[in-house]
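Exercise 7 asks you to align residues with tokens for two separate proteins.
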Amino acid sequence: MNALENKVAIVTGASSGIGYATAMLFAREGAAVVVSARRQAELDALVARIEKAGGHAIAVRGDVRDETLAKALVDTAIERFGGLDIAFNNAGSTGEMAPTPELSLAGWRDTIDTNLTSAFLGARYQVPALIKRGGGSLLFTSSFVGYTAGMPGMAAYAAAKAGLIGLTQVLDAEWGAKGIRANAILPGLMNTPMAIESRVAAGTPREEVVAARDRRVPLGRRMGTGWDVAHAALFLHSDEASFITGVSLIVDGGESVSWGS
């Protein structure tokens, strides 16, 4: 039997990277998946690929900063697939990067809204739906930035990602008795479009970005991929993790423990 057989899942940030790989893996493991991102064409291609492989998926385009999307995702899971068992609140962005005194207030607010407020909005609608199913699993994509290490220029990002860990712990304390597990997953430097393009946009040649980041990862001297995180997310949402809640699981190939070495 597949790990997520007969489960219904929401995956945000699903048009590429971690979200894309996770949606594919969840569908392969038996879940019906509601996928979301801002890019409709990429979502449509993902749904087509899942369905071609025999899975079930539906796309709901939107911006995770918008509360109407959070509600629409849950409503779609219920109306299309009968309920909700799993939510992977993965969407996020590095946002504006600058030394703290130079970071704009608008940039700060946008980064917090994209990474942290969006997770609150998701949970606000997901928790009641999970309770109706007798419990379920929430997962949030945080980061080792703001947890085990700080990086110059990333004050807003670090604050938002650290806030996700606090949100996870509170959700666990509030709803564990109702059968809801809440965990955070903390990727390191990933070989995903979001991780690479921000540095390229700042003027660093792509090959230099990749080579420099590969050198910083002790395990295999390579950046992680979306699939590395997807498999960890699958475990945390599966019955094998039924007694695991309130944890912050780092998936970074050892990068955070060797930061600066």
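Second protein for Exercise 7:
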Amino acid sequence: MEFIRDRHLLSCVRRAVEEYDMIEDGDRIAVGLSGGKDSTALLCALIELRRFLPRKFELEAITVDMGFEGMDFAPVKEFCEKAEVAFTIDKTNISQIVFDYRGEANPCALCAKMRRGALHKTAVERGCNKVALGHHFDDAVVTFMMNLMNEGRIGCFSPVTYLSDRNITLIRPLIYADEGDIKYFVRGNNLPIVVSTCPEDKHTDRERVKVLLSELEKQDKGLRHRLFTAMRKAEVDGWKKP
């Protein structure tokens, strides 16, 4: 299976992988495949990267089904079969726990924690030593601003994170890819996308900050990239500037 339109995305992924030593020879990498555009594009990019990266690694996809009604992951499964990538779906009742049993005032935090736990557990069970996540450039800038605005601290997720309790490493190969590049790649390759039916989708604090940054960017072109550069220059949470 070959992917067309936008070699730029693959270039961004290769740059991140090489600058942060994300992939080593013999790695077995689980891609956290939510069915959304970011994780689907990430899986495609890693499939392509495997063709020419000197280091040999294995890929498989893991989807955590959180139990939201109306979400059909059949197209994702079919895509993985065509791409000859092993696919595992972990069916959970996370949505019921968060929304029905717990009635969380801030459901996103608990949901994310439980989803990560399920993904990490399944990855270990599948013999993977690394988990690739679909966080991209815009996610990094938004996370940086959320921590600054909401908690008064300078911080972000890390490009590479080792979890000693699970003995796995999280990698984020899309950190140099703009969300617009990802959308273009997904449309150009007609990739299957599973639309989230979570009631909180597009109504989160993350979405609020994302919209705010978008408005500020219109007034001050290049703002997001300057924030990203500042974060790297300060080497915040493992971000380094080569």
